[in-house]
Specification:
This protein has helices spanning about 40-60, 70-80, 80-90, 110-120, 135-140, 150-160, 165-185, 190-210, 215-230, 235-240, 245-270, 280-285, 295-325, 330-345, 360-370, 405, 425-430, 450-465; strands at about 30, 65, 95-100, 105-110, 125, 190, 285-290, 375-380, 385-390, 390-395, 400, 470, 480, 485-490, 495-499. By secondary structure, it is α+β, with helices and mostly antiparallel strands. The chain is globular, with a radius of gyration of 23 Å. Bound molecules: protoporphyrin IX containing FE.
């Protein structure tokens, strides 16, 4: 069946367990077969990368840059990628090569190259063969690791979960969780990053996957997921260690526990004959080309990917927002004045969170994800030769675009390190070229959860900033980690007081 025959219903349908054929009930279909396995044995992968590079060099040219293995380059690239990328941009122009560990990576950093990678030359790239494959041990064949028809059909299946009405319905959960957490927040010194992460994970489990917030399973899933995720916060060489007692083994234990809990939830819903709510409900109501239910593993991979993509991004953004408001008092005063004028003594409601209800807060959030775009790098691999911003790039090579670096190019952002929400006044936005501001990616693989993330950020920020002031703890300096998403390394503590 080709992709044109995919049908998608806006909501999941209840179904009797025995009745498992599409012929008997309408429902979304994912007809394309799932992809083959990803090779994750490091020695084999490295060997293949080296052979591939030799082949590329025999047939074509790799863009200029730093081609030789260099421990110091790899180290600076891993620890301070923004400075590293901008200095290479100055030296080589927008498209250049840097060897990271054993492999050459082509970086493309300009609005033109971004538009090409995301939109006009989109079909020159594979996600699955790019560096997101490092996430495969946790995410499997989820949205971030698939290509082609299988990706297109999965995306079409999940899209209704992110339509405005659906997200607005989830906003009730976001506000309930935000207000409940704010009620319990005691003034004093706290690690806001860790605190927000718990709230965001609860919102994702309830609002995205449709789980009951009070269930013990949701709580245990959050714990197991955190354990599996911790691996990706460690330095890359540590992530690569294997064997008993290694962080990798610890993370695999978390993954196993998480899988058991998710499979338990799936089986319960299937046995009850009701796919249930949220994106999980949509996945459970779908069938494959033969009219059979999607395999449990496929449903699990998408669910875990949504949890992953859906909570760390908002957690980091909110923490960075509070950090910048704690340092930029003009920006903080402007947000507080707006909240006081619009909300007074009332809590925010769904009506305030559509984007135009609190424009100053909106610009402040936009500036936060300019300075600190959580998904700061878009890793791909070319599947055919392509010319990016005038530079020829051969087939088979890793190509990364970076919102973080693009958002700091002085040609498009005056004094790029300064935090200035007014950069997002309508006239300024209209004057900027396409591809200069890309925190959510673009084109047919644009962030699926953008609307969900935006509503969640507004709900959390409006609830917290109406009630509290957050000052970054003077003893702590912000250190940024870049894996898996941009975030404050080791958390970030704030002195919290009531307004
Ligand atoms: C501040 C919040 C968020 C930001 C800045 C963000 C950013 C991004 C970016 C840049 C991409 C594309 C990466 C690339 O081109 O390589 C992406 C993809 C994706 N995001 Fe988000 N994201 C956010 C929140 C969310 C949320 C809440 C979800 C919820 C489920 C989500 C789900 C996804 C998914 C599934 C994809 C893959 C889409 C596809 O391949 O078709 N994101 N995100």
């Amino acid at each position: 069946m080709d992709s044109a025959s995919v049908t998608v219903e806006a909501s999941a349908h209840a179904m009797p367990v025995a009745d498992r054929r599409t012929a008997d009930r309408p429902g979304p279909t994912v007809a394309a077969p799932p992809p083959g396995p990803i090779e994750n044995r490091i020695a084999i992968r490295t060997g293949r990368d080296i052979v591939r590079e030799l082949r590329i060099r025999r047939h074509g040219r790799i863009p200029r840059g730093n081609h030789w293995p260099s421990l110091s380059n790899t180290w600076i690239g891993l620890t301070d990628p923004l400075r590293f990328l901008l200095s290479h941009y100055e030296r080589y122009g927008p498209v250049f090569t840097v060897r990271s560990l054993h492999e050459p990576v082509v970086w493309a950093i300009s609005p033109t190259a971004n538009q090409q990678i995301l939109v006009s030359e989109f079909d020159a790239f594979s996600w699955r063969r790019g560096r997101f494959r490092d996430l495969a041990p946790l995410l499997g064949d989820g949205m971030l690791n698939i290509d082609g028809d299988y990706h297109r059909e999965m995306r079409k299946l999940l899209l209704p979960a992110f339509h405005r009405e659906q997200v607005e319905a989830s906003t009730t959960v976001m506000l309930e969780e935000a207000q409940g957490a704010a009620d319990e927040l005691e003034p004093g010194r706290i690690d806001v990053y860790g605190w927000v992460r718990d709230v965001a994970l609860r919102i994702a489990l309830r609002g995205l996957l449709g789980m009951r917030g009070d269930s013990d399973r949701a709580h245990r899933m959050a714990v197991a997921f955190g354990r599996a995720l911790d691996l990706y916060g460690l330095p890359l060489p540590v992530q690569m260690l294997r064997g008993p007692g290694s962080p990798y083994a610890h993370a695999q234990g978390g993954r196993k526990a998480l899988d058991e809990l998710i499979f338990g939830e799936l089986r319960e819903r299937r046995e009850a004959g009701d796919p249930g709510a949220g994106a999980l409900g949509m996945l459970l109501a779908a069938t494959d080309a033969d009219g059979e239910e999607l395999p449990e593993q496929a449903v699990r991979d998408q669910a875990v990917t949504l949890l992953f993509a859906g909570h760390d991004t908002t957690t980091a953004t909110l923490t960075f927002l509070l950090y910048e408001l704690g340092r930029s008092l003009d920006a903080r005063d402007a947000v507080e004045a707006e909240l006081d004028a619009v909300l007074g003594s009332e809590e925010p409601t769904v009506a305030h969170l559509g984007g135009s209800g609190l424009p100053v807060l909106e610009r402040t959030i936009s500036e936060t994800i300019r300075r600190y775009p959580p998904a700061w790098v878009g890793p791909r691999r070319t599947v055919r030769p392509v010319t990016l911003d005038g530079v020829d790039v051969p087939a088979g090579i890793a190509v990364h675009y970076s919102s973080w670096a693009t958002h700091h190019l002085p040609e498009y952002w005056e004094d790029p390190l300064a935090f200035r929400p007014d950069r997002f006044l309508p006239e300024a936005v209209a004057a900027r070229p396409k591809g200069a501001y890309i925190p959510f990616g673009g084109g047919s693989r644009m962030c699926l959860g953008m609307r969900f993330g935006q509503y969640e950020l507004r709900a959390l920020a409006a609830t917290l900033l109406r009630r509290f002031r957050f000052a970054p703890a003077a003893s702590d300096t912000l250190r940024i980690t870049t894996t898996p998403t941009l975030g404050p390394a080791g958390g970030l503590r704030f002195d919290v007081r009531r307004r």
